[in-house]
Automatic annotation (TrEMBL):
Residues 89-175 form the PA domain. The lineage of its organism: Eukaryota, Metazoa, Ecdysozoa, Arthropoda, Hexapoda. SUPFAM superfamilies: PA domain (SSF52025). InterPro entries: PA_dom_sf (IPR046450), PA_domain (IPR003137). It comes from Aromia moschata. Keywords: Glycoprotein, Signal. It holds the Pfam family PA. This is PA domain-containing protein.
């Protein structure tokens, strides 16, 4: 199985099948650096800043961990060496399920869309985000019954194709991100995507303590 990793700083806080926690194979990372940073790669991406609505920045370190993502199985562009973005906002879409054009389209355009699972297919969410101008999509299921699973995002045979990368973030991590942004009154986190940690041993990754790794 292919996976991506994410690194995060600060507190962040149905058409697919559940997968058990995967082995470390073909991994990438994304990171979040303080409440001002988000990094990650599963492809990976790094993060730098959480943005406050009053345009001020803070740099808490509650989310300075490495997170893993699982890329969509059979749709979307690959997270590879040709896809590399730095210091870009990870923006939760509104409405949160991303099944219609976002009300916060201006925030999503040119950035990475963060979408909750539910109400429409993963591919439909990705198509809508791409049309809104998103450069990549991260989807997470924050429902407590699914928060500790990776979910395989599969093609639903929609006629349109997805031309941007799409990946799944474990629900517990997604929930922490959303809670943290809400608590800090921030609209987005800044990330770098991807970050190549392929040859980094698992025990050297700074992973979130709430996952019990």
């Amino acid at each position: 199985m292919d996976y991506i990793y994410l690194h995060q700083l600060g507190e962040y806080e149905k058409n697919a099948k559940l997968s058990p926690f995967p082995n470390y194979t073909n991994v990438k990372y994304f990171f979040v650096r303080s409440f001002d940073t988000l990094w990650g790669q599963y492809s990976s991406f790094n993060g730098r800043h959480f943005h406050r609505r009053n345009n001020k920045r803070r740099h808490p370190t509650e989310l300075e961990y490495t997170y893993r993502l699982r890329p969509a199985k059979d749709f979307g562009a690959p997270f590879n060496e040709s896809f590399h973005i730095k210091n870009i906002p990870l923006v939760p879409v509104h409405p949160k399920y991303g099944c219609k054009p976002p009300d916060n389209l201006d925030d999503v355009e040119g950035n990475v869309a963060f979408i909750e699972r539910g109400q429409c297919s993963f591919k439909t969410k990705s198509i809508i985000a791409e049309k809104a101008g998103a450069r990549a999509v991260i989807i997470s299921d924050v429902d407590h019954s699914n928060e500790e699973y990776f979910i395989e995002m599969i093609d639903d045979n929609a006629s349109e194709e997805v031309n941007i990368p799409a990946a799944y973030l474990m629900g517990k991590n997604g929930l922490m991100i959303l809670r943290t942004l809400e608590r800090l009154n921030r609209n987005y986190a800044i990330i770098n995507l991807p970050v190549n940690l392929t040859f980094t041993p698992a025990h050297k990754l700074n992973q979130p303590p709430w996952l019990g790794w």
